[in-house]
């Protein structure tokens, strides 16, 4: 392998190693995926995560607004279409709302965000504000927690139907859609990151950005654990 490929492979493996701090290991998430959550805890999680879901296309639009590279924009814009929907596709936000209905929330209580905890909102705002202010390559890099997302979505698809038979299966469609969407997103995010962050200081910067994003997801779970308890 050439030195250039070696460097990229080594950098990518250090990015992937950060997955040990992913919220898949948070006690609140483990409770959800290991079948110990009550209907109230699941409803609390879905209602709070709605705040993250609606922020994602705003965050991606902020990245586009800072990005002078037309080719990069042509690819990145797909993320906004995925979440907002287009044509016949109602999109990810609507799929999340339907998850809310399937777990027993009303559309109104999902959409008016009455259950969203202050620290969840602050964490989500920190992500959107980072994307508004950072160079577009750094903001794209911060999406790389998605490297670890297919596994958490798959875990929900594999375990929730047995643990929570009261949830209508159609409600889990959001997770199914994300399996392919997240893999495609990651390809672009990684390409930009491996290309832009070169040299030890820049690589460390990318690792720090990824840690910042991992922390956002982690503290959202901390807030929900504090509000709804952990079994
Ligand atoms: O359910 C999850 O655990 C989870 C995590 C993440 C993530 O790692 O940021 C995303 C998603 N889901 C997700 O559904 C999603 O669309 C998404 C977009 C992004 C991003 O940073 O641009 N992260 C995530």
From TrEMBL:
GO terms for biological process: pyrroloquinoline quinone biosynthetic process. The keyword Oxidoreductase applies. InterPro entries: Haem_Oase-like_multi-hlx, PqqC, PqqC-like, Thiaminase-2/PQQC. It catalyses: 6-(2-amino-2-carboxyethyl)-7,8-dioxo-1,2,3,4,7,8-hexahydroquinoline-2,4-dicarboxylate + 3 O2 = pyrroloquinoline quinone + 2 H2O2 + 2 H2O + H(+). Residues 17-221 form the Thiaminase-2/PQQC domain. The lineage of its organism: Bacteria, Pseudomonadati, Pseudomonadota, Gammaproteobacteria, Nevskiales. Its EC number is 1.3.3.11. The keyword Hydrolase does not apply. This is Pyrroloquinoline-quinone synthase. Keywords: Oxidoreductase, PQQ biosynthesis. Pathway: Cofactor biosynthesis; pyrroloquinoline quinone biosynthesis.
